[in-house]
Amino acid sequence: MDADTSRLLRTLLAERPVAALATLHKGEPAVSMVPFVLPEGGTALLIHVSGLATHTRDMLEHPRVGVLVTADTSGPWEPQALPRVSLQADAVVVPKSTPAYEEAKRQYLARFPDATQMFELGDFDVFALSPVSARLVAGFGRAYSLVGTGLQEWLRA
């Protein structure tokens, strides 16, 4: 993958505010929308979700999830060639009593300041979604797969 393609796809994670989150719900696939942040230099996406949400219970029962982030549909791309990042990730709750939680909260609120009140509600948790593989599509004939060290390096870029 050339540097321009890498940058295009990595920019999706830095600039797009929401992702489609796929979970396993009672043995069936379920997809929801979640705001997310990928902290600069980090490799895990952070989401802040309510314990009342189906996808939260799904992640606690089956931590492997799918995440899809796409380019804006008003861009110059045909729908089939829309740049996108598809990740398979492991979801883990960030414990509230840890410095990691405070840092995750700071990062999340830097991107979504209107979420401040939700951090005061006891049923919300921060989950770290740690990618284990990625499928990156930059358009027709421009698809790439990443795992392991290559994936970690790309996420940190």
From TrEMBL:
Transmembrane segments: none annotated. Gene3D superfamilies: Electron Transport, Fmn-binding Protein, Chain A. GO terms for cellular component: cytoplasm. It comes from the Bacteria. InterPro entries: HutZ (IPR014419), Pyridox_Oxase_N (IPR011576), Split_barrel_FMN-bd (IPR012349). It holds the Pfam family PNPOx_N. Residues 9-137 form the Pyridoxamine 5'-phosphate oxidase N-terminal domain. PANTHER family: CREG1 PROTEIN (PTHR13343), OS07G0573800 PROTEIN (PTHR13343:SF24). This is Pyridoxamine 5'-phosphate oxidase family protein.
